[in-house]
Amino acid sequence: MALDPRHVPDWQIALDAEKSMKTVETIASELGLENKELLPYGHYMAKIDDRRVLSRLGDRPNGKYIDVTAITPTPLGEGKSTTTIGLVQGLAKRGRRSSAAIRQPSAGPVMGMKGSAAGGGLAQCIPLVPYSLSFTGDIHAITAANNLAMTALTARMQHERNYDDEKLLAMSGMPRLNIDPTKVLMTWSLDFCAQALRNVIIGIETEGRRNDGLMMNSHFVISAASEVMSILSLATDLPDLRKRLGRIVVALDRHDKPVTAEDLGVAGAMCAWLTDAIKPNLIQTLEGQPVFVHAGPFANISLGQSSVIADKVALKLSDYHVTESGFGSEIGYEKFWDIKCRRSGLKPDAVVIVATIRALKRHGGAPAPVPGRPMPEAYTKEEVGLVEAGCQNLLHHINIVKKSGVPAVVCLNAFVTDTAAEIATVRRFCEAAGARMAVSEHWAKGGEGALELADAVLDACSEENHFRPLFDRSATFVERIETIAREVYGADGVKFRDLALRKLATLQARDDAADLDVCMVKTQYSLSDDAKRIGAPTGWKLGVRDVLFHGGAGLVIPVAGDISLMPGTGSRPSFRNIDVDTETGTVTGLF
């Protein structure tokens, strides 16, 4: 009998379920994978040979494709991964062959504030500990590939400085690249939230030694926000991955010409680190449905999508495949819609928007909940007025999905403190907006609690939809950013700093400009670029202060507002709860 999540923490529920979970060979066989397509990592995890699967099943029609996104979240998160897992379990209860694709958790949130992103309660994926920590090594490989490129870059700059004699340089086999140390575009990466590494000085010489590197300003980003992670998310196969790695622009030379990873001769070695990482991973839900895990989180500062490869494989094997996009629909779903679907050629059949009474109360004006502290009283008692006011945020997200031409299903992720009157208020707003709504109790009841949600999704998938792009590919980068700001965020326009406009003009002049995608960086806590603007703010303009460029991933990245690509660790980090039973080796305290 399943443990009660109201009284037992997630990690104990996971450990209890792991006593009777299926082997990964059983999961693969039930999914329709052949033995040679499965690459086990122990008894309960595996990688999938995607090339074999897609070669064998290439002519098979795809299953239905469902994306899970959310309203604007609170710092506590509103349960997208929990809903994704619960929906798959509910669909299975309805007799549908279903699968999920979720993103591998970053060690930053696992050890920081949000936890492992394995779901929660009776809607989790297992085995919890390996999934939440090193797993099959994908993020470690991404970090290594990224930092190998930075190692190659900084070493080349030092040697070019030291080898003033062209004959000595030629003997080393290195053409002079004349890299400008003030125009290094790539950054180091680390999979922790380490604010102390946002801005650093490297290559500090000691006692006049010239072999300690070239002293310069440098930066770290969290690994999930690295260009290598975006490339892994969007790559279609290993040749595509190798080609994109070579196109990474690591720096500019002294004539502002791009210097790429291929120019450094490091792209092949980077790819060598990723030959296993490109293969999607397979685990299971608490109820034994397949879960594909591939690519990373952080749609606010990166792509934040499950990988194209994982989705393509799962759609050949499942009748209904549920994938996940990060944070609210204005950033996670917008990138799914405008980048991932365009690149992959896939089209969603339905979109689930996760909402909670808690988040709606926040957008209605309740005090912000703070992780690790008691919830304000407004969240524990009935406050219909706050819910009603907060529904303006929900309506905005429904409209975003409707603009893409896809049916929207609002999933009210139920909490024990929700009241009938509060739920009725949400249902009234959803019905008025023409969106299906389901109250789902998957956290407390697993698949049985998600049957109403499963039925709403099945109904939505039977509806004809008219999926369409947000803008024409001939639109300039400035026009695309303005369209996203107005049509998706609800802004009155965009205020570009001069630096951003100069960079956009340079990128617009590229021969491949029409093939590049705009990938916004913006706070996840507001539809605007200001985390303090709750609800559905009006009368504001999006401020774009800088533009980054990921040439290998093909992404133009406008940076809006005050946000960093390296998150920070707060004063109440999750790692304080994590320990190991040294007698059994059991990890405790993960959530």
Descriptive overview:
- Strand 14 (281-285) and strand 15 form a beta hairpin.
- The chain contains 20 helices and 25 strands.
- With 591 residues, it is of the alpha/beta class.
- The strands form six sheets. Strands 1, 2, 3, 4, 5, 6, 14, 15, 16, 17, 18 and 19 form a twelve-stranded mixed beta sheet that branches. A four-stranded mixed beta sheet has the order 20-22-23-21.
- It is globular and about 80 Å long.
- It starts with 9 loop residues before the first helix and ends with a strand.
- The model has no long low-confidence stretch (mean pLDDT 93).
- Helix 4 (80-93) packs across helix 18 and helix 10 (238-246) crosses helix 11.
- Helix content is 35%, strand content 18%.
Helix content: 25-40%
Number of strands: 25
Please state roughly what percent of the residues sit in beta strands, choosing from under 5%, 5-15%, 15-25%, 25-35%, 35-45% or over 45%: 15-25%
Enumerate the spans where pLDDT stays under 50 for 5 or more consecutive residues.
none
The largest sheet, given as strand count, sense and whether it forms a barrel, is: 12 strands, mixed
Distance, first to last CA = 21 Å
The structure class reads alpha/beta
Radius of gyration: 24 Å
Basic shape: globular
State the helix count. Answer: 20
Overall mean confidence score, pLDDT: 93
GO molecular function: ATP binding; formate-tetrahydrofolate ligase activity
Protein name: Formate--tetrahydrofolate ligase
Catalytic activity: (6S)-5,6,7,8-tetrahydrofolate + formate + ATP = (6R)-10-formyltetrahydrofolate + ADP + phosphate
Keywords: ATP-binding, Ligase, Nucleotide-binding, One-carbon metabolism
